[in-house]
Design goal:
heterodimer, A: 357 residues, mainly alpha, ABC transporter involved in vitamin B12 uptake, BtuC, two-stranded antiparallel sheet, 69% helix, disordered N terminus, B: 505 residues, 6-stranded mixed beta sheet, globular, Sugar ABC transporter ATP-binding protein (chain B), ATP-binding (chain B), nucleotide-binding (chain B)
Chain lengths: 357, 505
C-alpha cells in the first residue's frame, strides 16, 4: 500500500474520534485544487518556452520575435515533428511503441510520389497526380495494420516488431528512390504544392494542419469514449478488458491512426523540400521520443496529454533555433542539443515529480 | 507494559511519519518480546504499513525511536545491518522469478569457488543445507516462478533467517492461501517459534490471531491503541479497538426476505464449462437472490465467474433474464446485463492512474454524452452519486484510484460493476484485503442492491461473504457438489469446500 493511500482513510471514518483531524467533505475544495494542479502540470513547459523566447530576443532583438522568423524558421520545420509526435503520443498513451513511424515519414510519400512521377510502369504507373495523398495515407495506414497484426494478434513485442519494420521500410525506400532523391516536385504534384506553399492568414497550411489535428486530438482524447479508452488500456489493459473495452481493437486502431498521421507528416516534409530524399525522416524518432517525454507522456502508457506533447515539440524547436542564433558551431550543435535535451528531461522529471520509465 | 526480562526484540516508541501533508503515523508504539508471535492489526490506513516501513528501515521516521534488542537501530543506509535484525515477507513476491530458489537465497552473496568465480555446486549445496536446516521442503533447483505462494513464503523466511535475522514480519501471509495451506504455515511458524524466531504477524483475519499469536497490538487512525495478550482481549473488544466502537463482525443481510420460488430467474447457467477448470455447471439466480459459490482455489469457481463475465471462452449456455449471452465477449455480457467485479482489484479492477470518476464509469462510457462523447459534467455527476451511494472516502471524483486505500478502491470497483445497472452482479472475492468497516459497507451494498432490483452470484471463500448469501453452492474440481440454504453450519461447509472424501484436485 502506498503511503498516500494511507492518508485517505486515516481518521476519515471515525467521526467520534476527537483528535481526528476533520476530513474534507467530499466534493468541496480539494477536487478543484486537484484539477488546477493537473492543469498546472500540463502547463509546466510554458515558463521555459517563455524563457527561451526572451533569451532568443536578447540574442537577436531585430529578428527573433518577428512573425516571419518564428513561423518560417522555427515552427514550419517543427510541423513535421509535431505530427509524428502526435502519432507517437497516441501509441505511447495506449501503452505500446512505434519506432517505424519515422520510416513511414519517408516511405509513404516515396511510394505515392514514385507511382506518379517515377520512371516505372508497375501497377499501371504513372498514376494520376491526385492519387498522391490517398496512396500515401493508405500506405501509412496499412503499415499500421500490419504492425497491429503482429503486435495484437501474434502478441509480439511492439518494440521489436516496429524496429524490424523500421529497418525493412528504410531498405525499401532506398530500393525505390535508388540512393538519390526524387526532386523538383514543385508544380508537378498539386498536394505537394498546397502543403508547401498555401498560406492561410499568413500561416503555412502545414501549421494549420498541426493546430487542427492537435485540437481534434485533444478533444477526442479528453472527451470521447474512444479517447478515454486509450488511457484505460494504457493504464491497465486487464482492468480495461474487464470493463468491456475492446483492448485489442483500441490498440490496433491507434497503430493505424499513427501510421496515417506519420504518412501525412511525410507528405508535409516532402512538400517543404519539394523532394523525397532517400533518407527522409531518418533519425527523427529520437527527437519524437524526446519531445513526447519532455512533454510529459509516459513510456509506461496511460499518462500524458497531447497539449504537453505539443509544448515539448515547441520547446525543442526553440532550443534548436536559439542554439543556431547563439552561433554554436554547426559541428557542435548536435552535441549541445543532445545535452540540452538531457537537461530538459531531468528538469521535466523534477517538476512533474513522477518517475519516467 | 513489558515484563522486566530480556529487552524486547524490537521496540518502537512514539514513531511519527508524514508523507507530504498527510500524517501516516502519528504515535506508533510497538514492543515485541523475544520468542513470541505478535499480531499487528488495524484497518486499512491505520498506519500498519508505515510502521512496517519504519521497522524495516525503508522509511525514516520523522520522530520517535526504534530499538532492536535494546540497542538503537542501524543507520538508515546500512541495509546489511537492518537485514541482520529484521526481515519482512510481503504479500507481493520479492523473489526474482527467473532465477532458481538457490540463486534467490544467495542473491548478491553467492558463495565463491576457485579464482573468486561463482561456484554453482557450492551454491546448490549451501542452499540445500539452508532449506534443510529450516525444514523447507523445496528443491533449490526449482525456478522461483514455479513456487506456490506457500513455498515462496517459506523460502523467503529461510532466506531472511540465513541472513541472521531472528525477527520476521509477515504481512498478511494467509491472504492468498487456502485453509489447508494456512494450517501448514501455522505449524511451520510454531516450529520456528520453538527455535527462537520472533514473528510480527499482520492479518485482517481475526480468528488467525487467536490461533497463532500470543499478544496483539491494535493501531487505529495512525496511532497505537492497545497492546494486550490475546487471551485478555475478547473478539468484540478487539474489533472495538480496531474500529473505535463495539460492534460484532459483519452481520449484513441477516434480515433478507426469503426469495419466492416464482421470482424471475435473472441468471441461468446450463451446462456451462470452462476448458481445464469447470466441467458442467447448472445454476440459476432469481431476482432478489444472492447465490454464493464457495470452493477452493482449484475448484474452478473463479474461472466460472470470469466466463460468465465474458473474460474466458466457455461452452454451454448463459441466459440473463431469458436472453442468451454470447460467450467470450465482455461487451456482450455487459450489454446483456452482467455486472462484474473481478477477484483481484489490483490486477483487473481499476486503472490506478485514472480518476475515481473514470474508473467508476468505465463500463458506461458510451452513455455519458451524445455520439460517443464523454461530458465531464455528466461523468462527474454520475460518479458523485456513486461515491455517495457506496460511501467511498475520496477527495472527490478526480482523485486517482491508485491513491485510495484498499477498501475504498474496492468500492470504486463495485461502483463500476453497478454502473451499468445490471440484472445480475457477478462478484469475485468482493471483500478481499479490505478492513472490517469496508467489508461491511461492501456487503451492505450487495445486500441492498439485490433486495428487489437484481440478483447476484457471489464467488468467495470468505465465510463472512457467504453469510450474506441466500444460499451457497459448493464447487469441487469444476463441479457443483452441494447446496446449503441460509443458516448453514460452518464446519460442514468448510469440510465440503476442502473436499473431504473427494478426489478434488
Amino acid at each position: 500500500m502506498s503511503p498516500v493511500s494511507e492518508s485517505t482513510t486515516v481518521s476519515t471514518e471515525v467521526p467520534t474520534e476527537p483528535e481526528a483531524p476533520a476530513r474534507p467533505t467530499p466534493l468541496t475544495g480539494r477536487p478543484a485544487n486537484r484539477l488546477r494542479l493537473a492543469k498546472l502540470r500540463d502547463l509546466a513547459l510554458i515558463p521555459p518556452i517563455i524563457a527561451l523566447l526572451v533569451y532568443g530576443y536578447t540574442l537577436k532583438p531585430d529578428i527573433f520575435l518577428t512573425h516571419s522568423y518564428l513561423v518560417d524558421s522555427v515552427l514550419k520545420y517543427q510541423a513535421v515533428l509535431a505530427m509524428v509526435v502526435l502519432a507517437e503520443a497516441l501509441v505511447l498513451i495506449v501503452g505500446k511503441f512505434d519506432l517505424s513511424l519515422e520510416s513511414i515519414v519517408g516511405i509513404a510519400p516515396a511510394v505515392a510520389i514514385f507511382l506518379v512521377v517515377g520512371n516505372t510502369s508497375v501497377l499501371g504507373a504513372p498514376w494520376p497526380t491526385w492519387t498522391v495523398l490517398p496512396v500515401a495515407l493508405v500506405f501509412g495506414g496499412l503499415i499500421g495494420v500490419f504492425n497491429g497484426l503482429l503486435i495484437v494478434r501474434f502478441k509480439l513485442s511492439a518494440f521489436i516488431v516496429t524496429l524490424a519494420m523500421l529497418i525493412f521500410l528504410r531498405g525499401l525506400q532506398l530500393t525505390l528512390v535508388g540512393g538519390s532523391t526524387i526532386s523538383n516536385l514543385a508544380k508537378r504534384v498539386p498536394v505537394i504544392d498546397y502543403l508547401g506553399n498555401v498560406r492561410i492568414l499568413t500561416l503555412p497550411l502545414s501549421i494549420w494542419i498541426v493546430v487542427v489535428l492537435f485540437a481534434v486530438g485533444i478533444v477526442v482524447l479528453g472527451y470521447t469514449r474512444v479517447g478515454r479508452s486509450l488511457y484505460a488500456v494504457g493504464g491497465n489493459p486487464d482492468a480495461a478488458r474487464a470493463a468491456g473495452i475492446r483492448v485489442e481493437r483500441v490498440i490496433w486502431m491507434t497503430l493505424v491512426v499513427a501510421g496515417l498521421l506519420a504518412a501525412l507528416a511525410g507528405l508535409m516534409m516532402s512538400a517543404q523540400l519539394a523532394s523525397v530524399a532517400a533518407n527522409q525522416g531518418e533519425g527523427m524518432i529520437f527527437m519524437v521520443f524526446a519531445a513526447a517525454v519532455i512533454g510529459g507522456i509516459s513510456l509506461d502508457g496511460g499518462k500524458g496529454s497531447l497539449f504537453g506533447a505539443l509544448c515539448g515539440v515547441v520547446l525543442l524547436g526553440l532550443i534548436r533555433s536559439v542554439l543556431t542564433l547563439a552561433q554554436v558551431a554547426p559541428d557542435q550543435i548536435e552535441a549541445v542539443y543532445g545535452l540540452v535535451i538531457l537537461v530538459a528531461l531531468v528538469l521535466a522529471r523534477l517538476t512533474s515529480g513522477k518517475a519516467q520509465d | 507494559m513489558d515484563g522486566a526480562q530480556a529487552p524486547p526484540v524490537v521496540e518502537a516508541v512514539g514513531i511519527a511519519k508524514r508523507f507530504g501533508p498527510t500524517v501516516a503515523l502519528a504515535d506508533g508504539n510497538l514492543s515485541v518480546r523475544a520468542g513470541e508471535t505478535h499480531a499487528l492489526v488495524g484497518r486499512n490506513g491505520a498506519g500498519k504499513s508505515t510502521l512496517v516501513g519504519v521497522l524495516t528501515g525503508l522509511h525514516r521516521a520523522d520522530a520517535g525511536e526504534v530499538r532492536f534488542a535494546g540497542k538503537p537501530a542501524p543507520a538508515p543506509g546500512d541495509r546489511a545491518a537492518w537485514r541482520e535484525r529484521v526481515a519482512c515477507v510481503y504479500q507481493r513476491p520479492s523473489v526474482v522469478r527467473e532465477l532458481t530458489v538457490a540463486e534467490n537465497l544467495f542473491l548478491g552473496r553467492q558463495p565463491r569457488g576457485r579464482f573468486g568465480l561463482l561456484s554453482p555446486g557450492r551454491l546448490r549445496r549451501e542452499a540445500a543445507e539452508l532449506l534443510e536446516a529450516w525444514a523447507v521442503p523445496v528443491s533449490p533447483d526449482l525456478a522461483a516462478r514455479d513456487l506456490t505462494v506457500e513455498q515462496r513464503q517459506l523460502v523467503e523466511i529461510a532466506g531472511a533467517l540465513s541472513l541472521g535475522a531472528r525477527f520476521v514480519i509477515l504481512d498478511e501471509p494467509t491472504a492468498q492461501l487456502e485453509a489447508k495451506a494456512i494450517n501448514r504455515l501455522f505449524d511451520r511458524l510454531r516450529d520456528l517459534q520453538q527455535q527462537g524466531v520472533t514473528f510480527l504477524f499482520i492479518s485482517h483475519h481475526l480468528p488467525e490471531i487467536y490461533e497463532i499469536c500470543q499478544r496483539v497490538t491494535v493501531f487505529r487512525d495512525a496511532r497505537h491503541i492497545v497492546t494486550a495478550p490475546v487471551a485478555e482481549l475478547s473478539h468484540d473488544k478487539l474489533v472495538e479497538a480496531m474500529i473505535g466502537e463495539a460492534r460484532g463482525l459483519v452481520q449484513v443481510g441477516a434480515d433478507r426476505p426469503s426469495v419466492s420460488a416464482d421470482a424471475e430467474k435473472v441468471l441461468e447457467l446450463s451446462g456451462v464449462g470452462v476448458p481445464g477448470f469447470v466441467e458442467s455447471v447448472d445454476l440459476s439466480v432469481r431476482r432478489g437472490e444472492i447465490v454464493g459459490v464457495a470452493g477452493s482455489a482449484a475448484s474452478g469457481k473463479r474461472q466460472l465467474a470470469e466466463a460468465i463475465a465474458g473474460l474466458r471462452a466457455r461452452s454451454g449456455e448463459v441466459r440473463v433474464t431469458g436472453r442468451v449471452i454470447k460467450a467470450g465477449q465482455v461487451p456482450a455480457a455487459l450489454r446483456g446485463g452482467v455486472g462484474y467485479l473481478p477477484g483481484d482489484r489490483n490486477v483487473d479492477g481499476f486503472v490506478p492512474g485514472l480518476s475515481v470518476a473514470e474508473n467508476a464509469t468505465m463500463t458506461i462510457a458510451g452513455k455519458l454524452g451524445p455520439r460517443g462523447f464523454v461530458l465531464p459534467k455528466v461523468r462527474d455527476g454520475r460518479a458523485n452519486t456513486m461515491i455517495a451511494d457506496l460511501d467511498v472516502h475520496t477527495a472527490g471524483p478526480h482523485q486517482p484510484v491508485g491513491e485510495l486505500s484498499g477498501g475504498n478502491a474496492q468500492k470504486v470497483v463495485m461502483a463500476r460493476a453497478l454502473a451499468s445497472d445490471p440484472e445480475v452482479l457477478v462478484l469475485v472475492q468482493p471483500t478481499a484485503g479490505v478492513d472490517v468497516r469496508s467489508k461491511e459497507s461492501l456487503l451492505g451494498a450487495v445486500d441492498e442492491q439485490t433486495r428487489s432490483r437484481r440478483g447476484a452470484l457471489l464467488v468467495s471463500d470468505e465465510l463472512d461473504d457467504l453469510r450474506v448469501c441466500d444460499r451457497v453452492v459448493v464447487m469441487v474440481g469444476g463441479r457443483v457438489v452441494g447446496e446449503h440454504p441460509r443458516g448453514w453450519n460452518e464446519a460442514e461447509l468448510v469440510a465440503e469446500i476442502e473436499g473431504i472424501g473427494e478426489s478434488g484436485v
